[in-house]
Design brief:
By secondary structure, the chain is mostly beta strands. The protein contains 2 helices and 28 strands.
Length: 351
């Protein structure tokens, strides 16, 4: 092969990425059927869109105040983002001092972003201080945690109204539907438990004890086991969704603060971000133990996988970037700049 041909092959991916972008980093069009990572930036109040294949930023969308939780609708046409007008209180701030700060409840809600136009088309009510949420498999409802109200809201996406508000464990954060779609679980940070809500009746049906300050929730695809990351406890709780009994507690290395948690397609691995631990832990669900750790950015929090499970994206708040991890080699293959304090990330195909 000639020197020119070798050079052209090396440069082609870069040239294609440049051709796809307008000046200022805006992409000319979102490609249908292509995977993108959507990253919420809590302080810059926007959403960074990253091409999952090339690990390049293709657009930045303003969405509203303190965007945190983010998910994509089942049909891939809509991005939902949790917005909050409550003040941002760092871990070092005492609760008494945080309580003195003024909240603007008019800024609470769930932003609805149209994937095709890359614009926020409306903001739905989501209860007080919405933080994270899950969307029903048929795309008709959202289940939202309301951190400062110790409640969970059920939002009807057809009417755009809150259809129910339920009391759950104090300081609710993580929200996840069981694989069969029949139960939604909400983690209570201060309560140190999960609240189980029956989807059909909209009623609380039980609780699951966890470690200290539970955050994220995930399930094996067959629904046989659930996993909860416990930030302060430095553990992951494994539980049986059928009996709501704890099966095991997985200890993490000193300094790790388990935060985000996702399960690989097929359920062969579980990935857990460790916050100030600066890594992503890889769990083996057969043994319920850590089998590897991957250094990531500063305080990795939100996690998301591509559909084939080959790439893992971590939102790294203090470093204002996103790590892209190759899950075969378990190495960071790219670091992508995001906005200010990236919090959550979701990956999905546009339609």
């Amino acid at each position: 092969m000639s020197t020119w041909n070798r050079t052209r092959r090396r440069l082609l991916p870069c040239l294609l990425a440049l051709a796809a972008c307008r000046p200022g980093g805006e992409k000319a069009a979102i490609q249908g059927g292509h995977e993108y990572a959507y990253v919420t930036n809590e302080d810059s109040r926007d959403l960074t869109i990253i091409d999952a294949a090339t690990a390049t930023v293709v657009a930045t969308i303003p969405v509203g105040t303190r965007p945190r939780g983010v998910l994509i609708s089942p049909d891939g046409r809509t991005i939902y983002v949790a917005l909050s007008g409550s003040p941002k209180c760092p871990p070092s701030m005492p609760d008494s001092e945080c309580a003195k700060l003024v909240a603007d409840k008019s800024k609470d809600g769930i932003a609805v972003v149209d994937v095709a136009s890359r614009k926020t088309v409306r903001v739905l009510p989501g209860g007080s201080d919405p933080e994270t949420f899950d969307v029903s498999p048929d795309g008709t409802r959202l289940y939202v945690s309301n951190e400062d109200a110790n409640s969970a809201s059920i939002v009807d996406l057809t009417s755009g109204k809150v259809m129910a508000t339920l009391s759950v464990g104090s300081e609710p954060e993580g929200v996840r539907l069981s694989p069969d779609g029949k139960t939604v679980y909400v983690s209570g940070e201060s309560a140190q438990n999960l609240t189980a809500i029956d989807v059909a009746t909209g009623t609380v049906v039980g609780t699951v004890p966890t470690g200290e300050r539970p955050r994220g929730i995930a399930f094996l695809p067959d629904g046989s086991k659930g996993y909860v990351s416990n930030e302060v406890g430095g553990t992951v709780t494994v539980f049986d969704p059928a009996s709501r009994k704890v099966l095991a507690t997985i200890p993490f290395p000193e300094g790790a603060r388990p935060m985000g948690i996702v399960v690989a397609p097929g359920g062969g691995r579980i990935y857990v971000s460790t916050g100030r631990g600066g890594t992503v832990a890889v769990l083996d669900p057969a043994r319920d133990s850590i089998i590897a750790t991957v250094p990531a950015g500063k305080r990795p929090w939100g996690l998301a996988l591509t559909a084939d499970g080959k790439r893992l994206f971590t939102a790294n708040g203090p470093s204002n970037d996103v790590s892209v991890i190759d899950t075969d080699s378990l190495k960071v293959i790219a670091t992508v700049p995001a906005g200010s304090v990236p919090w959550g990330v979701a990956v999905g195909k546009s339609q």
